C-alpha cells in the first residue's frame, strides 16, 4: 500500500513537472502576425464551414449535369377475372422503357445556375477568409497593446515603489508631512490596480486571439512585433476606393446576380413541357403472339405555366442588383471611416511619440531627481507621474486605433498595411 502511494505521488509530481514545462513552452514562442493569420486560416471553424459549403456546391454542379433516369415498366392485363379471363390464358403482358426528354435548354440552364451558385460559394469563402484576416489583425493589435500596457504599468509601479523609501525618510526627518507619505502610498496602490487591470486585459486579448483560432481552452500567447505605426505608404482614398471592386464580399454579391439570372433562365426553361417517349413489347398469351408498342406523351400547359416562379426569379435579380449597390455603398462608407481614422490617429500617435511622451518622461525624471534633493514637493512628483502615465495610455490608444484602421483598410481593399506576410515595422515617431 505504501509502495502504491509512493508511486502515485511520483506520478502526480511528474505530471505537475511536465505541465510546468509545457505551459511556459507554449508562451515562450512569440507569435508573429503572419503566423497568427496562418493558424487562424488553418484552424478557424468558420473558414472550414465555408470550405465545406463550396464542396457542397461543387457536388451540386456535378449533379446538375446528370440526365433524367429512364423508367422501366411492366404491365399484365386480363388476368384473374371472370369467365374467359379467369386465369392467365387471355392475359396480355407488356414490358416498356420510358425516357423523359429535357427540352427548352433546361439542362444547360440548370448547369449554369449550379456553376454560378458555386461561384457565389467561392466568393463567400474568400470573403470569410478576408474578414478573418482582419479580425486576427485587430485581435493581434489588441494583444500587442495589452503587452505594452502591462510593461508600462509595471515600470510605473516600480518607479513609485522606489520613491517610497525616500518619502518615508523625509517624513521621519520631519521634512514632509504624514499626508505626503499617504499620498505616495495611494499612488502606489493606484499603480498596482492599473497593473492588475492591465494583466486582466492582456488575458482577455489572449483569449480573443485564441477564439479566432477556434481554441476554447486558455493558454498564454505572446505577440511578437513592434507596436508602432505601420511602415507603409497609404495610397489616396480614390485609389483605395477603386480597389473595393476586388473585395470578395462585392464579388460575392455580383456572383449572386449572375446566379439569379441563371436561375431566371432555368425557370423560363421549366415552362416548356418535357415529352416522354416509351417503347416496349406486348405478349398476347391467348394467341401466343407479340407486338412492339411506342408511345409519346407531353404535359399540357393549361394551368401551370410556371409564371409565378418566373416572376419571382425576376424579382430576385432586381434584389441582387440592389444588394450589389448597397454593399458597395456600405464598403465605401467603411473605407472612408477607416481612412480618416488612419490618417488622424496615426498622426496623433507619431506626434505623441515624437514630442509629448519624451517631454512627459523628461519632466517626470527631472521632478523625481529634484524631489530627492528637496527642490519639488510630493504633489509635483505625483502630478508629473500621473501626466506621464496618461501620456503613455493615450499613445497606446492612438497606436492601437491607427493599427486597427490599417487592418480595416486591409480587410476592405486587400492592401497589406500591417505586413502580415513580413515583419517590417517601425516604432511610432521613429
Characterization of this structure:
It holds the Pfam family OEP. With 430 residues, the protein is an alpha+beta fold. The chain has a domain at 36-67 and 118-270 and 324-413: Outer membrane efflux proteins (OEP) (Up-down Bundle), CATH 1.20.1600. Helix content is 68%, strand content 8%. A four-stranded antiparallel β-sheet has the order 1-2-3-4, with no helix packed on it. Mean pLDDT is 87; it is low at 1-28 and 421-430.
Could you give the topology of this structure?
Layout: H1 2-28, H2 33-43, H3 45-64, E1 71-77, E2 92-100, H4 106-173, H5 178-212, H6 237-243, H7 248-270, E3 276-284, E4 289-297, H8 307-372, H9 378-413
Antiparallel strand pairs: 1-2, 2-3, 3-4
Helix pairs in contact: 2-4, 3-4, 4-5, 4-7, 4-9, 7-8, 8-9
Labels describing this entry:
430 residues, alpha+beta, Outer membrane efflux proteins (OEP), 4-stranded antiparallel beta sheet, 9 helices, 4 strands, 68% helix, elongated
- What's the CATH architecture of the domain at 36-67 and 118-270 and 324-413? Up-down Bundle
* Strand tally: 4
Helix share, percent:
55-70%
Model regions low in confidence, pLDDT < 50 over at least 5 residues: 1-28, 421-430
CATH superfamily of the domain at 36-67 and 118-270 and 324-413: Outer membrane efflux proteins (OEP)
Task: Just give the CATH class of the domain at 36-67 and 118-270 and 324-413.
Answer: Mainly Alpha
Approximately what portion of the residues adopt beta-strand conformation? 5-15%
Rounded mean pLDDT is 87
Q: What name is given to the CATH topology of the domain at 36-67 and 118-270 and 324-413?
A: Outer membrane efflux proteins (OEP)
Major sheet strand order: 1-2-3-4
Rg (C-alpha, Å): 38 Å
Shape: elongated
User: Strand count, sense and closure of the main sheet?
Assistant: 4 strands, antiparallel
Terminal Cα separation, in Å? 68 Å
SSE ordering: HHHEEHHHHEEHH
Helix segment tally: 9
Structural class: alpha+beta
Subcellular location: Cell outer membrane
InterPro entries: OMP_efflux, TolC-like
Signal peptide: 1-27
Protein name: Outer membrane efflux protein
